[in-house]
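Subject: for your reference before the review

Hello V.,

The reviewers asked for a structural picture of the protein, and I figured it would be easier to keep everything in one thread rather than splitting it across files. Below is the amino acid sequence we used in the manuscript, unchanged from the supplementary table.
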Amino acid sequence: MGTPLDAGKGLAEGALITATAAACVIPDAWEFVSQVYVAQCDPGKIFAAGEAWLKAAGDLGDAVSGAEGVNNQVGGTGWQGKDYDAYCEKVADYIRQMMVAQIFAVIVGIALIAIAVLLFVRIVAMLVMAAGLAIFAAAILVAIASVVGNLGASEALEADASIYAVECEIGMTELSSAIDVVDYSEAAGIAALLAGDVGVQMAFGNQDALGDLGQASIDGLGTICAGLTSRFYRDALAGFMAAPGGTILATAVGVGDTVYGSSVVDRATGNAS
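And here is what came back from the structure prediction:
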């Protein structure tokens, strides 16, 4: 069963391809390309994970209701004494633990869905920006291909395109920073809630909760290391795209800047090589 955000991965890839093609004509867009590359993600899967957590919360709610129903039935049998008191205490502990776990599942589910929606919004924004760059790139190539007014028309378009590329870069930086703040805040909140959940379980008699958390952390080391390695590679490649590797790559394949072979912004600031 799909989610409303399943198209996000394909749109993100389309934005990357479009922005990369445009940057071969507009060198100042390579920084934006690096940001689009870093922003690649699959909001549909994140949304689905959030739905799974909410479903787990619903299942825990059903379990709590079932446990309470059984406890009420046992209480109606007339059973009394120390054994009954111990039974009621233990059942109450189980019910409280399940309720805490239910709250945790709801919070995690909502957090995942919220971040998935934010990521999808960023994907749509960067797709629109990439489309704008593609339009500029196409216009520049058409101007160059024309016989009349070649250098004048294409140079003016390059200047406008470079300014637009810088605006896209700034917009993506601000949008990504805002999403990072939300992301880190949610992660910190979930971590604090997880620590609290372990503390509550231990307080209610589950002395294995801390050990289970430690074992789960050890079991996840392989996944954590793989994720960190992937992130290191991603950031290194994004850095190469941004400066000055993107322009070097474009020059290597014979593209580069369409008129002067350097960035319009570099020419304006006197940094052209």
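For the response letter, the relevant points are probably these. The first helix runs from residue 8 to 23. The chain has one domain: 8-269.

Happy to draft the paragraph if you're swamped.

O.
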